[in-house]
Amino acid sequence: MSDEQTYEQQITRDRPTLAIADDDAFMCSMLATQLGFAFECVGTAADTDAAIELASVQQPDAMILDVIMPGGGALKATRAIRASSPNTAIVILSSDELHSDVIDLLNAGASAYLRKGIDAQDLAQGLTASIAAHGHARERVSAVADTESHASGGARS
Q: CA-CA distance, 51 to 92, in Å (whole number)?
């Protein structure tokens, strides 16, 4: 640790980054506080467009999205975040469990779908597992692209 770097900066640098989007400000605040032991919260958003912008600017390791938010909700946000922040693991946190919603969100690029009310420790474990799984999936896609590029004699852009 350098003399210019504070202890707090060293600690937060070592934690994965997290962004939270929920139209309930209390929920955002509570999640940021409860998950602070394991994640550095880089911002919160109260609607879909703000969530997309937050992910695009901050490029967090993980993002929690509520299913129903003003401006289009988690499905719209997931699709846009997947395009603008492809390294972000998206975790849906909702009280709804409609099978079709869960499938649509996972197909759009969400890494996991968890229920509101989950214990903070279990949520942190779910986020950490989602980050790891998302990273592993990106590595496999990259390896396949490299293999295909070499097999065809082309260069990967």
A: 13
Its pTM stands at 0.80
Among 157, 34, 134, 119, smallest CA distance to 78 is for 134
Q: Write the single-letter amino acid at 109.
A: G
Sheet holding 62-65, edge to edge: 40-45, 17-21, 62-65, 89-94, 112-115
pLDDT digits (tens, 9 = 90+) for 104-141: 999 999 999 999 889 999 999 999 999 999 875 555 44
For residues 3 and 143, give the distance between their C-alpha atoms in angstroms, rounded to a whole number: 40
* pLDDT, average across residues 10-38: 89
Tokens read off for 62: 């993980």
How far from 29 is each of 19, 23, 76, 108, CA to CA, in Å?
A: 11, 11, 23, 27
- The token pair that represents 30 in the structure block: 């509570």
